[in-house]
């Protein structure tokens, strides 16, 4: 598998998963396939199911490769955040192996607006067990980013400001169900706050490697997502000495893999 996961329970504040790259070439292959729109194939790989890769055109590959090449800091920040979202998409599916998980496809372009990640955990009777709402920030300024951008966003979700957006997204994701089942989910499951798991993906500074410092990074999480169940508040961390240098190298790995997919 491309990742190893290290779990830390910062009870009662939040639960943290630290993301550690185990196989960078395998990760580059899976992210490369996501860039080509093959999220169903990647989901099958992560579920240990066999599925042949559908063909890609040269135009698709050329476009994906162009999006990996950056010339300015702004382009780099957008690209890096986009690829980080794909990494966390893979991570969520890995962490929920064996469960019925239906997830929003990764964004198709850098800096795309909307929910960074949305996944629905279903029961065997087609009920919503949990809604996972993810915000991912690939940044050298993790603390002010969480406090200034992520916590306010989660607070609005808790207040119901984005319920119409959730209804739209969930309805699309569950389009394979009978209409009566979908209506029942909309009326009874989506609005239940206790069903929601908020996931903040962040890149701590290299100095934030101790458990105490990482817990301090998530200070305030319980103020925007209330309740005694810290599992509703989930932090995902990815620590590198230099996140930009790492992503430059990783982007090249993805670029090289895409070249192998030409017809």
Give a brief description.
This protein has 263 residues and is of the alpha/beta class.
Structural account:
The protein is of the alpha/beta class and about 260 residues long. The chain is about 45% helix and about 20% strand. Helix 1 crosses helix 4 (about 75-95), helix 1 (about 25-35) packs across helix 10 (about 245-260) and helix 3 runs antiparallel to helix 10. The protein is built from 10 helices and 7 strands. It has a 7-stranded mixed β-sheet with strand order 1-2-7-6-5-4-3, with helices on both faces. It has helices at about 25-35, 40-45, 60-70, 75-95, 140-160, 165-175, 180-190, 210-215, 220-225, 245-260, and strands at about 5-10, 15-20, 100-105, 115-120, 130-135, 195-200, 235. It is globular, with a radius of gyration of 18 Å. The model has no long low-confidence stretch (mean pLDDT about 90).
């Amino acid at each position: 598998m491309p990742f190893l996961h290290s779990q830390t329970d910062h009870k009662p504040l939040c639960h943290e998963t630290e993301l550690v790259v185990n196989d960078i070439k395998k990760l580059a292959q899976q992210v490369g396939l996501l860039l080509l729109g093959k999220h169903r194939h990647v989901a099958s790989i992560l579920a240990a199911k066999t599925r042949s890769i559908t063909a890609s055109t040269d135009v698709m590959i050329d476009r994906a490769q162009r999006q990996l090449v950056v010339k300015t800091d702004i382009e780099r920040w957008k690209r890096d955040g986009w690829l980080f979202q794909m990494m966390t998409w893979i991570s969520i599916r890995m962490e929920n192996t064996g469960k019925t998980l239906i997830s929003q496809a990764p964004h198709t372009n850098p800096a795309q607006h909307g929910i960074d990640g949305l996944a629905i955990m279903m029961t065997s009777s087609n009920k919503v067990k949990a809604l996972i709402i993810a915000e991912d920030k690939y940044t050298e300024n993790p603390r002010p980013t969480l406090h200034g951008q992520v916590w306010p966003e989660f607070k609005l979700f808790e207040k119901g400001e984005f319920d119409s957006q959730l209804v739209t997204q969930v309805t699309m994701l569950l389009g394979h169900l009978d209409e009566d089942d979908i209506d029942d989910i909309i009326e009874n499951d989506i609005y239940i706050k206790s069903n929601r798991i908020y996931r903040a993906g962040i890149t701590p500074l290299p100095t934030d490697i101790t458990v105490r410092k990482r817990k301090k990074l998530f200070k305030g999480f319980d103020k925007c997502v209330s309740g005694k169940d810290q599992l509703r508040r989930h932090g995902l961390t990815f620590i590198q000495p230099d996140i930009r240098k790492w992503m430059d190298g990783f982007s090249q790995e993805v670029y090289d893999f895409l070249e192998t997919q030409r017809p």
